Each structure stands twice: as structure tokens, then as C-alpha cells.
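Lab intake sheet, docking and co-folding queue.

SAMPLE TYPE: protein with bound small molecule
LIGAND NAME: S-adenosylmethionine
LIGAND FORMAT: SMILES
REQUESTED OUTPUT: full 3D complex as C-alpha cells
PRIORITY: normal
SUBMITTED BY: R.K., bench team

The fields below were copied directly from the construct record.
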Amino acid sequence: MNEYTAIADYYDLLMTSGYYQHDKIAKDIAALVPPSQKIIEIGVGTGLLLEKLLEIDPQYNLTGIDHTPAMLEIAQKRLGDRAKLFQADILSMSIPERFDAAISNGGLCAFVDTGSDCDFYTHLPDYESNLQALQNVANCLENGGLFITNVQGVHDAYDQPLPGGIVYSQEIFESTTTNCIEKVFYFKKEDDERILAQQRLIYRIFKEEAIEDIFNQAGFKVEGKDKSGQLFIASKK
Ligand SMILES: C[S@@+](CC[C@H](N)C(=O)[O-])C[C@H]1O[C@@H](n2cnc3c(N)ncnc32)[C@H](O)[C@@H]1O
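RESULT FIELD (auto-filled):
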């Protein structure tokens, strides 16, 4: 579930039009993780963040996993042999290597700053799978290794013109009965509103009070936000 197959061809266009500031996020990560350390990105997508880390220092030892083959294909073209890429679902991932840091930039998860709270959003719908995923992240880290997750703004409905006569729209549907929201991404032709690609995603939301509990159970100590306030850090106990 939550594969990005349908929108893979339009993903970079949206990202490089301001959805994420990959260069800024990479600088904030580089301030926490020196290039001598090994990093794995969970939900590497098309490799935009790893590329920015390599621009900061080509010595970074980088690995990425993702479960969407169409996204990984673009990452492979972008990164070539500068990063190791694997198709894997975080729920069944078993990588024998140990890393100094794991990153999720909207991959497995992201934190969402609502102004009053900082909630934890993930691509996995139920509690057990989220616990399993966090345990899998912990298992691939060295003791004391960091799990670094981006902090982003609230998911709203909006339209945004993109280069090439394309309009991006997103719609959000909140559920009153589950702890999930549904987000639909649309890429449309500007002139006739024809839909070029669309993708429906479900996010599970953990409210602030539940976050420490699931991270602790998975083997992490919550450290809180970094200096920039744009990254959330947990360390492997
Ligand atoms: C919003 S994109 C983020 C991509 C990248 N981190 C970036 O900064 O552009 C989310 C990515 O996470 C991947 N993903 C979602 N759930 C996953 C799972 N259970 N296992 C592995 N990858 C997953 C999707 O396939 C997608 O490529």
C-alpha cells in the first residue's frame, strides 16, 4: 500500500517546485551526521535528498530503500553508483549492514507541525505495523545511531501551477473514526484540466502524547528537534 507508482513521473517536478527544500534539509542533516558515517534513507524516492548530501560531500556512504520500483528507477539514474539502492518494504526489510543514521524525509514518516503540536504521520495504517517498521529501523542502526525525520507543515488542500502547463492539486479527507487521513495527489493539464496522474495515500497520525511511547517500545530514546527545528531526532537505546 501507499506505493507512488502512478505519480513517479511527475514527482520530481513537484518536489523541485518547492514541496520540499531538499538542499536545506540535507544541510541540516549534514550538521548532525559527518560524511565519515553511514546513512540509510528509508523511502528514498527518486534520490533527491541523497543527491543533495553528495553535493555537500561526495564521501558520504549512502544507502536507500524504497518499495516503489518506478521511484527507485529514477533514483538509480540520478545517483548511479554513488549510493546503494534496494527495493524493499520497511516492514520486511532485512539489511545485514549497520548504519550510523537512518533518515525519513516523508518516506516511512514525517512529523507535522500544526502550530500547537508536532504529530507523527506515517505511511503505515495500523499501530502494529508502525511498531514493526520502527523496530526494523532500530535493528539496522548501531547503538546510539540516530533516526532523523523531517518536520513539515500541515497537509492542506491547494492547487499549484508547475512548469510545462501542469497544475498540481492535493485534497485531504479526514476520518472521524480512524486515526488516518487520506491525501490525493493530482497532476492535471492546465488548459483542459485533464488528469495526467493521480495517487491516493493514507497516512496514520500519532498525536504528540503517543509518540514517545511507540518510539520507546521500538528501542529508541526521543531526543526532540534539532537546532533548525526542521528535523526530529531519536537515538537507538
Ligand atoms: C513522499 S516520498 C519521499 C521520497 C524522498 N524521501 C524525498 O525526500 O523526496 C515517499 C516515499 O516513501 C516510499 N514508501 C512509502 N511507504 C514505504 C514502505 N512501507 N517501505 C518502503 N518505502 C515506502 C514511497 O514509495 C515513496 O517513494
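REVIEWER NOTE: DSSP finds six helices and 13 strands in the chain.
SIGN-OFF: pending second check by T.M.
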